[in-house]
Batch of 2 targets.
Target 1
Amino acid sequence: MFIVAAIGFIMGAVIGSFLNVVVWRVPRGMSLVRPPSTCPKCGHRIRPWENIPIISWLCLGGRCSSCHLPISWKYPAGEAAVGLLYALISVRVWQAALPLSTLIGWWWFAGTILSLARIDFEHGIIPNLVTYTSMIAAAVLAVAFPFSRPTVLLTHDPQFGGILIGKFLDKILDSGLPQDLAPRLAGLTDCLTGLLLGALILWIVYYFGGKALALWRKQRNRTDLPEEAIGRGDIKMLAMTGAFLGPDAVIYLLAGGTLLGFIGALIMLRNPKQRKDGTLSQVPFAPFFAIPALIWVAVGNWFYILFRICSNEF
Ligand SMILES: [Zn+2]
């Protein structure tokens, strides 16, 4: 098990190094490939040996080798965080004897959600590049490796969801379609149902929330209220989540994220920040959503974990 965790950690640190680049460059509209990484302070080009996750930062004492100015702790911390997540996910997949292909989807999802949380926290946006690319990846994976989705492999296990459309997926799997077609169709169905459900729920919140805010702005003359109840990026983030984890996860994770977000908003709104256009800035949702989402893939269905703790079944 130690080896499984170690391999997961190394993979996570390497991917985390790339995700650091995503978190820095994508919200700034920069290309992910060009130019090569440089020190943001002196422009010194990072050599390959200075780019080994975590280790390089420690060896360089957290300073640029050229200008000796400090390099943010966020880089090694980001790499270590993804490393830890990937290690947990690897151990879980290994212990539950799930197919190894499960790792691809869960690693991708965990890395993406963590990056979105960081971007949303710092910039208040959720980039389309990240959400759309991930939705496509989830659909391709669902067709290529349908049994990498626990929702298709174990249709009625509450640890992975499978309540909403488990029976329907069973019907597809037992439909008598050719052996290599039925699972792919079930995988794609699970992926698209999750995607559409996620998009639909938050689109409804977006639409009616916007109407309510417009009414409020007009009647109470509150021009400082934002125009949108939630960001459009949040809709795509939940759709992407459904694409990877299926429709049940959408409900559980939205509930968990909303609960945490509500508590977070109460704290943050004590001294609300104003944006440049004078409207109040919204509370970023992705950091709160990321917590139940990451628990879901790294440990298990957060709702069942809580339930088992409360009923003393541990
Ligand atoms: Zn430098």
Target 2
Amino acid sequence: MSLRCAVAGLNRGSRFVKLLQENADCEVVAVCDPRPEKLAEYPDLQVFEDFDRMLEEAAPEMVALITPGPLHAPQSLAAMEAGAHVLVETPNVYSAEEARAVVELARKRDRRYMLSEDYIYMGWCGRLKAIVDEGVLGEIIGAMAEYTHDCRPVKPLSAAEEQHTKAWRFHALPPLAYASHTLGPLLYLMEDRCTTATGIVGGRTEIAGGDVFPLETAVLETEGGRTINLTNGFMLSHPFIWCAALYGSEGSIRVINTNYADPQALRVLISTDAEPGWRDLPMEWHARDDGREHLQVLVDDFVDSIISGRPAPFDEARSMDFCLPGVLAHESAKFGGAKMEVPLF
Ligand SMILES: NC(=O)c1ccc[n+]([C@@H]2O[C@H](COP(=O)([O-])OP(=O)(O)OC[C@H]3O[C@@H](n4cnc5c(N)ncnc54)[C@H](O)[C@@H]3O)[C@@H](O)[C@H]2O)c1
């Protein structure tokens, strides 16, 4: 019997419709988006402009939430209340209160809940995990990451974009709330979680808008006694850079990508005590060993956890580990850099 699935948010979400349709155990029964022109692309499915109506009338067993960030926690709660399992894009929550409510409901209703943090599923991340686990870097002492990307609107948003899409990125996406693409892989590689978050922000909110500073930096402490520095900024005159480093007692690694559109531009540099000095790792770093598309594997793993009854690859607590520390660092920055405790669910 197929798992009845629904997808909400049909910009990036249209990819999730296809990914779920590729999975033999799934049947996509419904899609939801307030834009009729998006719904018109799915003549064979039940289509809904209203999310709650979709939950009620289509009764999906699993929902993929690929909607604007601020909707993620309310829609996750509504979906789990209605009995559905939830796969949700990043940022999955905007506060510790939202995180707690989501975790408690997932446990109370015994629903699978997973952040769709896809960077961890990329080929380079799996390869780095093997290197770290082999002990090539010795003991990992700390980490850093930077994610900066010029996402300033190139032209004024249309009324429709202001209402339904894109605008939330400019007014309601504090850069550190979008921490999971760097923090997720780092915590996964170190098998660690953050215990405190301290934030500092740069620039004026007027440059970005709403609650959003152009440049935000977090200092995070971990359960394993490490520190992680994160810097994120999306409303800057600065082309895309995604980079991360692991500092070890016997070696270090630096990953850097300067071209958003070209995953092959990713470089992985390593230096070890045995072979000091930076050198590029000569591998096809982006392709997975199994040759599969990483997002398909993520979706398939999540579906498999529902069908088999096994825990999700990242359960509700781990999903919060990857995103909430950044959210709390942003809050910390607003209060002059006060150190915040990160709840460990
Ligand atoms: N993992 C990645 O690399 C990656 C890349 C891009 C986007 N994302 C994430 O994916 C999500 C969606 O991003 P996007 O670029 O498609 O955003 P977007 O703003 O371009 O599109 C959001 C879509 O959701 C729809 N929508 C708005 N309100 C809705 C509601 N109440 N119910 C259902 N649908 C609603 C909009 O009409 C629009 O079609 C975000 O969380 C974003 O952070 C992740």
